[in-house]
Design goal:
With 188 residues, the chain is an alpha+beta fold. It has one domain: Gcn5-related N-acetyltransferase (GNAT) (Aminopeptidase, 3-Layer(aba) Sandwich), CATH 3.40.630. It has 6 helices and 8 strands; from the N terminus they run ββαααβββαβαββα. An 8-stranded mixed beta sheet has the order 1-2-3-4-5-6-8-7, with helices on both faces. A hairpin with a 5-residue loop joins strand 1 and strand 2. The longest helix has 15 residues. It starts with 6 loop residues before the first strand and ends with a helix. The model has no long low-confidence stretch (mean pLDDT 86).
Length: 188
């Protein structure tokens, strides 16, 4: 098995990032990053007061196939890994799962540990994930978002997305964001 291709980026404040596809070997880093999430960040991601990743949740999160279920992870190479890898500290993940009924749409989720939020990590993850999705025919990302999650709703608006009431709950909204063509996704 070959190592996944690593890409580099920088945070808004100039710190380096390493981004690459998630693999099953990332389970320890994923669990460690989960434990560094605040209670609010866990609630915003899972819509519940999740205190640990269950084996079934871990299986779901690590179940990627490079086509229909894809995840990109971010590492800070300047900070040591707490799980013994040489890639640095695991700080975020973005994933999509293609809609079976509409293959041009994929459900998306992004999680960044609290001390890296609002530094451009989510945007870097979404740019890489978007390029991957575009190459596979996905044209829109969809997500359920808490109506109070203003940081995510701001990202949706900046990326030209729409926000609609969620059919299943008053505290949720459904967002739909166009996936930019790769030339549009490149910085500068």
């Amino acid at each position: 098995m070959t190592a996944p291709r690593t890409m580099t980026a920088t945070t808004a404040d100039g710190a380096p990032l390493r981004l690459r596809p998630l693999t099953a070997a990332d389970q320890p880093a994923l669990e460690a990053a989960f434990h560094r999430l605040s209670e609010q960040s866990r609630y915003r991601r899972f819509f519940a007061g999740t205190v640990r990743l269950t084996p079934s949740m871990l299986h779901y999160l690590l179940d990627v196939d490079d086509e229909h279920r894809v995840a990109i992870v971010a590492f800070d190479p300047w900070r040591p890994s707490e799980v013994g890898t040489d890639e640095g500290l695991g700080i975020g993940v973005a994933r999509y799962v293609r809609d079976v009924e509409d293959p041009a749409v994929a459900d998306v989720a992004v999680t960044v540990v609290d001390d890296y939020q609002r530094r451009g990590v989510a945007s870097s993850l979404l740019t890489v994930l978007g390029r991957h999705a575009w190459e596979r025919g996905i044209r829109h990302f969809r997500a359920d978002v808490l109506a109070e999650n203003q940081p995510v709703l701001d990202i949706v608006r900046r990326r030209g997305g729409s926000i609609a009431p969620h059919p299943e709950g008053a505290n949720l909204v459904e967002v739909l964001v166009p996936v930019p063509a790769p030339a549009d996704a490149l910085p500068g």
